[in-house]
Structure formats: C-alpha cells, structure tokens
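[SOLVED] Need 3D model of a three-part complex

Original post:
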Amino acid sequence: MFLPVMLMGADPAPESQAMVFEKARAAVIRGAVASIEKSIVTIETIGGAQPLAEQAGTPPPGRGGRGRPPGRGRPSGPVEEGFKLADGPTTGVIVSADGLILTSSVNFARNPALITVVLADGSRKSARLLGVDYIRRIALVKIDASDLPACEWAEPGEVEVGQFAIACGRGLGGEHPAASLGIISALGRRNGSAVQTDAKTSPVNYGGPLIDIDGRVVGIVVPMAGEGGALAGAEWYDSGIGFAVIKPRIDRVMPQLAAGESFWPGRMGVQLAIPEASLTARLDELFPWATKGVKIESVVPGSPAEKAGLEADDVIVALSGMPIADRMELQRRLSDMAAGEKITVRVRRTFRTVDVDLTLATAAEIGRLMREADEAPAGDEATTQSSSD
Amino acid sequence: MMGLAVMLASVFVGVPDDTIIAPNTLSGALARVSPAVVKLYGTGMGRAHGYGTGVLVSADGQILTTKSLLSTADTIRVVLADGREFEGKSVREDEYRELTLIKIEGKDLPFVTPSKTDHVRVGDAVAAIGNWFKVADGDEAPSVNRGILAARTTLNARRLVQTVDYAGPILVYDAITANPGAAGGPLLDIDGNFIGLIGKVVESADTNTRLNFALPGEELCDFLGNKASTATTALRIASDVEADIGIKLSRMGYRHVSAYVDRVRPGSPAAKAGIRGEDLIIAVGGRRIADAEACEEAVRRLVPGEKAPIVVKRGQEFLTLEVVPEKKSK
Amino acid sequence: MVTTLALSILLFASGADDAPALTAADPAAVAVVRAYERARIELIRTITPTVVCMFSKDDQSGGGGSGVIIDPEGYGLTNFHVVAGMMMQREGKGGLADHKLYDFDVLGIDPGGDVAMFKLHRKEPFVAAPLGDSSTLAVGDYALAAGNPFLLAEDYTPTITLGIISGLHRYQWGSGRALRYTDCIQVDTSINPGNSGGPLFDMAGRVIGINGRVSIEERGRVNVGVGYAISINQIKRFMPTLRAAIATKHATAGFTVMDRSHGAMVNQILDDSPAYKAGLRLGDQIVTFGGKTITSANHFTSQLGTYPGGWPVTVTLRRDDEKKTIRFRLEDLPFPDVQRGPGGTPGPDPYRQTKKTRVANRAAVSRTLKQYELACGGAGAFKALRSITLTGQRTLASRPAEPQEVRFVENRPEGGAVSKGDPAALEAEIRWELMNTALDPAAAGLRVVRGDEVQDRICVVIERRADDVVTYEAAFDDENGRLLGIAFNDVASGKRVRYEYSDYRRSGTLRLPHRRTVYLDDVPFAEDVFDGVTASSQVAATQAAS
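Solution:
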C-alpha cells in the first residue's frame, strides 16, 4: 500500500514520486488556464484585404555562426514561404471591467471592416479598434460592457528565468483555450519590452496571455520581431522562441492607445555605411575610442535627419543618451522608437561631437522622400523598407 | 491541507538529486510501446516522402499507419524495433480517416492496442514517437518528442491547396510532429497508453500554421474494428451531395467580400430559419467564415436534413438561427 | 487514523476529476510544482554565468554563436563553425551574463567534428560549468540548452530552453569530411541559429553536449523540434589537444565494415594498417569497438567518428567461432579543407601554427603541471619536497612467482638536463623534472603533443624535446592531473621504455602512486607494488637500489 510508506517518512520509490509530479503538473496547468479562462476572449475579424506578402526568405535578425551580416538582401538556405494570415479566430485578453481588450497587432493586419469579440460565456459583441502599437505589436480593442473579469497580472519584478510559462489561445476554437507549456527563457528582451519563452507561440495564441502557474498574466503573446511589415516574424511560429510584451511596457503606451493613437516604427532618414571588416579590426586595436559608432553614408533629402543637420560621414555614437557601438545596436535601439518621437542624436564629425534633435518620421514618409529624390533604397537603417505599418 | 502540502513539498525539495528537478517519467511508457513501433520505407514522389512510421497492433503483424503514397506502394519495407526487416502490403484503407492497415508475415511480434482517450485532458503530458527525417535506421530507435495536450478539437485543415476531408475529432499537442516521416507514429500518455496516431503534415485552415495533432484512439479502434465513420462529413463525402439553404450573397466585384445576404428565396430553409436580406453571415455550422466565398463553400458542405446553426449580424445584434438545409438541385 | 484518511482522500481526489470543465488545482499539487519550478530556477541561475555569447571581433552585427566556459581560467567550448570566420587573427569577443564583453583567443580546432576551444581573458577567474557523462543519458531525460539564438541577447544574458533527449547515437552527415556529427545527441529542446556552440546541460547543471545543428525542411531555418548536440564524451577525447591550440584530426580505422547479422563484418582492410598488424583480417566480425557492442555498419562508422586520429582502441572480434581481443592505434584522417574567409573567399590556413598557438600550448603545459601538483597534494606540494623513499616488492614478468623486496631512495636533483643514464635512473630524473617544472613551467622545453588513453583515462601527453630530439613523453590524466605514464627510448637496449603509475594513495601530505608497471616495447617487464611511499622535505640518505 502506498500510504503507510508515506506516513513512515520513507521516500517512496523515485518513479512514483515522479508520477505524482506529472499528475500535479497537469492539474496545475489546468488550474492556471481555468483561472485565466474567463478573461480570454475570441476576436473575429471580417473583411479587409490581405496585407502584402512578406518578402520570401527574409532572415530574422542575426544569422548565427556564419559570420555573414543580416539583411544582405539575398536569402540563403531553403527559401521560406511568405506567411499569409488565415481567417481563423484570434485571441485577446480583457484588461478592464468596462471592456478594454489587449491583443496583438498581427491579428488586424488585414484592416478588417468588422471586429467581433466572443466572451467566455459565448456571447458576441461588436468591437472597435482603438489604437495599435506596431512597434511592440500590440493592439487595444474596446467593447461596451461592464463587470467583465479583467485579467490578473503577475508582478513584473518577480518573473524568473526557468519558471513555467503557459501560452493560451483561442485560435483553434473549441470550448477551452488551447494551452502550450514552456519556460521563461529570458527577461528584458526587445529593448526591455518583452519576456522570451520557449512555449510554442503562433497565430493560435498571438494576442493571448502568457501565464504563470497561478494563472497570472506575465505578458501578451506577440510574434517574433522580424523586419518589415505587419506579419513580420509570424513565419517563425512554434520555433521555441516566443515573446510576450510585459505590463510596464504596455502601461507606457496604454493612455495613447486608449485615446485612439497608434505607434509606428520611427526612422531618421539616413543610410548607414557598412564597415569594412578587416579595416575596422586593425583600427579598433589602435584607436578603440575612434571606431565605436555607425557612419552615415548619406542623408535622405527632406528627412528629419537632414532637417536636423546630420551629414554624410557623421558617425552616430549615441541616441537619446544611449551609447551606440555598432549597426546592430543602432537598429535595436531605433526599433523601440516611434514615429513622432523626438530624439537626440549624438554624432562625431571629424574631431568634434555634435548633438542634434530630430522628430522621427514613419518608414512610409521616408520611402516617399526617397522616391521623390529618385534614390534606390539599399543598405539602409532598416534592412527592409516596408510601408504596410 | 497546508501541512500536507508543506510535507509533500519538503519530500521533493529535500532530495539533492538531479532526477528530482526533472525526472524522466517517459522511460516506462517508452519501454512499453517502443518495441511495437516500426519504420516504413517505400517510394516517394515530389513532396511526398517515401518513409514513415507505423505501429504493430497484433502479434501476427498487423500495422497501423496513415494512408499515403508510401502505403499504397506495391511493397512496403517494414523495419521492426529490433532491426528485423519484413515486406508489408496494405490490406485495408480508410479514405476519410486517412488510415491504412499493413500486414507483414510474423508471429509473436510485440504489439500495442489503441486506448480510449476520455481520460486525457488539456495539460496532460504526451509523448510522440516517430522516425521524422528518417534519422533512425535499422535497429536504431525512432525519435521521441514530448509536450502536453493543448486542445481537443476537430480537424479543419489543408494540405497545400487541397482541403483535408477528415473533420472529426483530433488531439492537438505542443510537441512538434508536423515533420516528414512522423505520420503513423504513436502518441502516448504518461502511463504509456497508445492514445493516438500522429497525423500527416497539414496546415490548419484557421491559422495557416502546421498542426501537430493525432487521430484519437477511438477512431483507431473503430478503424481496426472495421467500423466506418458515422461522421456527417464522411457521409456527405460518401454520398457526394451538396447542401443549399436558399440565399444569394451580394457581390461587389472584388475577390474577398464579406458575406452579406442579398436575397432570401421565399420558402427556403434560410427563410424558414429567419435569415433576412442585409444580414451579415458570421459563422456557418459552428465555424466562423471569413468572406462570401468561404460562406458558400461552408453552406455546400452542410448535410441536407441536418440542423445547423448560422450566426448573423443584424445591425448591432448577433443572432444564432437554426437552419435545416436541403439537397442542392442541379 | 484520521490523518491516513485525509491523506488518501487528497491523493486519490486529485486524479478523480472526470468533468470536462477546467478546475483549480489543489494547493498540494501547486506546492509540488512550485518546488520543482524553484529548483529549476536555481539550477538555471548557477549555469547562466558559464554561457558565452560569441561574436567576431570586427563585426558584432554579423554572425554570432554561443559557447560555454569549462575552466575557471577561461577555457571554453564552442562549434568550429562559430569561429571559422575568425581564423585570421584567431580572436573574438564573448559576452557574459554580467553584461560585459571579453576578448577571447581561438585555441584548438576540430573541423571534422565541428568543435573548437577558446580562452576568454580577464583577471578574475570565470564561473565554469562542470562536464557530465553523456554515456549515461536516456531518451526522455530532460535537457536544457543555453545560448544566443537569433542574437536576441542584447545584454548577453543567454536564452534558456527546455526539452528532452529525443534520440541517442545519431548520425548527421557533414559536408565532406567536415562538420560530421557522429554518435550525437538529438533533442527537442528548442535550438535555433545562434545556439550553435552553446551548451546542452543535464538537470544537474553538467555539460552533456555542444549544440550545433537542427533538421530543417520546408519551413526554412527555424527549429521544428529536432536539434543535435555533439556528445561531451566525444569532445573529452579532443580536449587535451584543443586546449593546447593543436588542430586535431579525426580517426580512420584502416578497414571498412558492412552489415552482417546484427553486427558489422570487415569487408576491406589495408595490410599496412595498425589493425592488420594487430591481427584483424577480412571477414572478421567486429563484436566490440572501444568497449561498445557494435550492432551495424552504421553504428561502427558513428563510433569511429568520435575518436581523434592516433587514439588506441580495443577491439574484440569473432572469427569462425572464436573470439579474440586486439588493441591498436587508429590512424589520422586528413584534415577537411575549410579555408574560408568572409563571404566564402579563400581565407587563412586554419591549421597553421602561430605565435598565439605556441603560447597557448605552453599555457596548457603550465596548467597540466599545476593540476599535477594539485593532484599530488595541493598548490605548493612540490615546493618543500626534497626526497621520496619507496619500499615494496618488485615482480619481474619473467619470474612471476619470485617477488623481490625493493627500496628506492630519491633525492631531488639540483637541476640540469635529464641524463641518458639507465632507464631506472632516467625515470626518476624525469619524474623529478616534472615536479620541478611544475614550480617553474616556463623553464623546460615541454609541449603538449597529443591526447591519449592510458589506463582507460583520457590523458594529455607532454613531450620534452632537447636539441630537436625527443627526450621523453609524460601522460597526465586530463581530468584530475595525475601522472599516469612516462615513456622514452633507451639508447642502450634500443627499446621503448614505458612506465605506468596507478593506485594513487595518501602518504603524509602527498598523494603518490603506489604501483608502477614497466613495459619494454609494450611488453610487461616488471611491476612494483609499494606499501610505503614516504615524501620528505629532508634529503634522505641514499642506498643502492636493488
């Protein structure tokens, strides 16, 4: 009999101890989903156009181990199919009793004519899209309601690498949300706006909650940052690399989103020089202070950069107080800054240091300016110029 | 209650053993089922791969696997877990469930029997065994991936542009099995029960993403017991009949148009159900539809004579109306 | 009694729920899961500082991979393909979880097996990860991967993923002779581009593999649940040379096999190969190879791929109905051609010796001798040592039933070159020279020449060369530093003299071998078993050794 062994204090055989853990884990997963379930909604969209298909073979940032910089324009290895958004239901999370619902911007890539929200009790409501943060890939939707069960958030400072993480989504339909189990893989990713998880994230759960074992929301699941438009990164679903945007970052944009404002990735309007590999290495040894930063190859006429007085051959060494060592760091920092945001750019010009203020523009505006100036886009500050955001 | 919780917790935390941090709970289950897992090899063509996995379900050599180009070949090379090779032939197939029964001449072979799945719930650990990417050869063990049951739902999927007919129950999990060579391998629960057969590589029509799923044990038992599926879709496919409810959707000239009802034929099933002009059709038969084209397709696939719910948006309201479709007249 | 009842109700109640609704878990279950979760979080905390985000020095925006520190001095392991583009200067930068970047040098490379060793530089010691034993792994065991997939680690904190061992002893084709993964570990732990070179940990926080490859199909370069890691037990055989910045070749057997009744049969053999000379013939069935029972030709090929060239192997073979055991050395497989620079242009010769590699070799010698000193009693153990007295019995192989009492007294020599005296005197001098050199490694002309297996232990072999003549070789246990063997040529007899040491035991403050076996041309000559080994800081009165 199992019980007397337990009471006598002797450890049960390791195998049955392990099985107790398995059953407990399964029960805990169910309990966590049960706890969040009432705050998860299904979002259905009707109408709208399929967004421009992502450039086939767009690599994710960094290529891993082959020494080749990303975004050289030519895909290598098997050609990835461009990701096409499906028509199925998507997921959202109730964040206020009066009907504010967070979800992912990718679910609205088609610019739908009609948005409906199905609550956990099956009732259907019309919804309107308030604001979209295309940088953090989240969107705010509103339904008219009261007394809705808003989700409970985990304490951001208490989330730890290695803790269980469950991604929940309504993308497969059914009575309960689908659950996918993983761990928290890293904190403070994507300029501190997201936690990373190896739970499988995909259109099944984009916009849904990533929860802990107590059913509290650690973040809102969004696609991996690709480069380009609305669907960027969605093709990397189920890769074991998933992201969830955390509450502190959402809180920073919530007032504007609720007021109907959106955030688009900001651009300065410069084309960056690609450094000569071996040359920089020698210089780096001799003059380490002189080679940090990113050189500007040219400035787009009429762009915020030009208006602020930036010139070709200026070397960008800091953005709004944050030091910039290289191209990758520049792109990363910039990727968290929105069009309309005022930033300070510090450049090294010959032997002087110059600070300029500029207001970032959207990629679409820069593209327009470039077309007007009859320049062919190549090797610029983002590896793809996409205008669909 | 709390005292007990503390006691249980301390039993685990106190032992400084790596098996406690994450015990290998699969070894028992794998030991039970692995001897019955076979590697299959045949001819492939184009995107279809010429290799896969199967499960021995009888001591005399009946093997369950998915129906594919591989299983329809004249001879199939079957390699057992211990490396013994046999020649197999397909003896029975199920078009709807996409299952095949292969027979090899053997005796006293290790086998497993599909189990019922009502005890399996979301969150339960599952393990999938299969020879994806044909990494294993001869007596080498096929691969094992582990996950949890993510959802129980019905299949709504495509293989490239072709809609998959099977619309019955499936087990969806978060271990990746949507890889070449996986189909036909067993899905196990933590106790080593054979709860499902890994499905073929398909994309969910709901998400455009690869689905990691298995056909539940009940469907496998029915197939082995030679019970045809009574699923309505199966019947519809069998009888090759299309449904009609008597509505015409408005067309505006571009490809993707919302399913607004233009006209309702008087006396039609739609009229009897209360559908009106200018209603926007949101869902047909429990499945949300995206546009007019999808709506027409969904209506065609309903079963004449069987009640089906249709959700419409009328003004600001959402209504669910029950319609009984009739056979479409040519 | 009430307690029993409550216990039974609780335990059985947790499993009984058959309603389809999802319900809250009972607190006992949550407590159990939280305990596991806490233990795993703590484990990850201990391994995180050992993970390196690897970058090339000149272009951090470019490629990158991962690595793991395995020695507090900064030695680490990665994939060869992660550092292949850094072979011009053999330098790179590694980011650690302290958010700082450190310089590293690329030491030895193994392009055939896709392994390389690097050394990070800083004043303070590094946190190093212990090595595990990949031969004890089972399918279903959990395994953690750590690294920098897609270069997501902005602050160099690694990405941690969890999965299980999906398969063992897997084979993955390389490109030609390069980057072959033989006898490798398959995992469903998520591994993506950028994870290359990073560690695979067991749940005790020990490195059991180095991640390097994934299987991919139509979806492109994204993980689909199938990743591969080079087993740590394979890498251990290469570590002695990699640490000394020696490019290391893989092995060829001198024969090939084909499948034959659940095993492998020799179907081709070169008659000038060491295997042939040891007695292997066409048609022989290979029963075991390197201690592993061989079940197929593939299995043999996979096992062979885990050895460096020159490694000794024991093979049991079956011929007709008889079993025979032979031992021979594998030969070298030529290096693969991997001269590639950025963008696929011809690059520098990665196999060339440079000033850096010579310095690294000397550092490896220092490290080995330091380890030797630690093994014998700790830092400074040799400093005060002036004499060693050994008493016991010597048994000659020619007279096994007549052991003789022996007593050897050795005083520390003043210095000077090791003489070309009689083997016994020479052996003692060599041992003392090694102990002296441990105190001052820069002095002698010692260098690492290869790895080897002595007494079933992986060893680093150091040679002493004077005037371009090899004076002797010494083999040290690569894991614990013990001196396991010394070998040299005896000018007088023309024979190769080899001493092996075992049965290390405490004597006073030191730990010294209590058994010494002498081989002449690999034939056992004599065995000394000492019951008393005394080390002293005083000079001892000598007596003639018998």
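Edit: Residues 355-376 of chain C form the longest helix (22 residues).
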